[in-house]
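User: Sequence in, structure out. Go.
Assistant: Echoing your sequence, followed by the structure tokens.
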Amino acid sequence: MNEGANSGPLKGATNSQEELDEALDNYYTLHEWDLKTSWPYRKTLEKLGLKDVADHLEKHSMLPKE
């Protein structure tokens, strides 16, 4: 993860851990996932037609709180 690109216009370019963490947080936020657990929220699962999965996770106290 910390090695630079081998070729192309970004050859040798790297990202700091802070940049990678920020990118991951942005990805989770964009997809409506919990930043702490990286699991999708109930509303996200329901939008995908996965209410049964949300119900199962909630039953086992595994669904993140919004």
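User: And one key feature?
Assistant: The chain is about 45% helix and 0% strand.
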